Write the structure tokens for this entry.
Amino acid sequence: MQILDGKALAQKIEKNVASEVVKLKENRGRTPGLAVILVGQDPASAAYVNMKKKACDRVGFYSVTHEMPEDISQEAIENTIKMMNQNPNIDGILVQLPLPPQIDTTKILELVDPAKDVDGFHPYNVGRLVTNLDGFVPCTPLGVMELLAEYNIDVKGKNCCVVGASNIVGKPMASLLLNADATVEICHIFTDDLKKHTLQADIILVGVGVINLIKEDMVKEDAIIIDIGINRAENGKLVGDVDFENVASKCSYITPVPGGVGPMTIAMLLSNTLKAAKQSADKEEA
Ligand code: NAD
């Protein structure tokens, strides 16, 4: 069994991004900029935003966080996004989800300029992903593909079982795998007999939010396990959706939690923002 070390790869990617930023500043006078919109006091959201901000600082990006109260109006968030769409110092706009119930999240995400949509949540970019055209791809599944590539794992022709079908994890994960010529199955809360599906899989990619959902008897010998879940266990530790202790010895590769997919998500946010900044510089210079 080999560990897929997302932490190490994320550090390597960060280094590359940082040196690209230096070049972009020197040669084109541009500093990539990321704007984050954080609504409310949810500690997990605040922690994620803080990690993203620190990562931006490490690679030399300009970043700004717009913190808004829980009872903010739809109009106020929309106005902030419109401002960021117009701001030439901002290349990427990220709306930290979830938003409070009074807010129409779809409308908010649709307002982000697709050229600044570094989270890849705008329907324009979703459509480009599904049709296998270049665009912005959601950071978590993009990070999984990078991690697989780093370890020379080719998904072509492999049976992949994606467990979880959200717009930010499962669905884009499935699209990326399909674009890379895998045979893809998507399971979710209403899937009957999950084990029947996971047992057939060469690669299981699970992002659900249920501790120990994937157990030893659900995994075939030498399978590859990608654990996207992040859960807080009773003892306060971060754990994934896979019963790591019992599954690890059975598979050929596995991602740990923490240190697997999580750091890759942040690394992909940085590389998406760099890509947006370069594309914006290209447009300006054209
Ligand atoms: P979500 O609640 O939007 O979606 C959960 C999905 O899991 C749904 O499709 C649901 O049908 C499915 N599901 C729920 N219970 C199930 C069960 N018992 N069996 C099979 N399917 C089931 O959640 P999300 O935003 O997609 O996040 C999923 C998990 O991934 C969470 O643990 C989240 O913290 C984690 N996550 C991790 C990263 C990262 O960087 N590693 C990024 C985003 C989300």
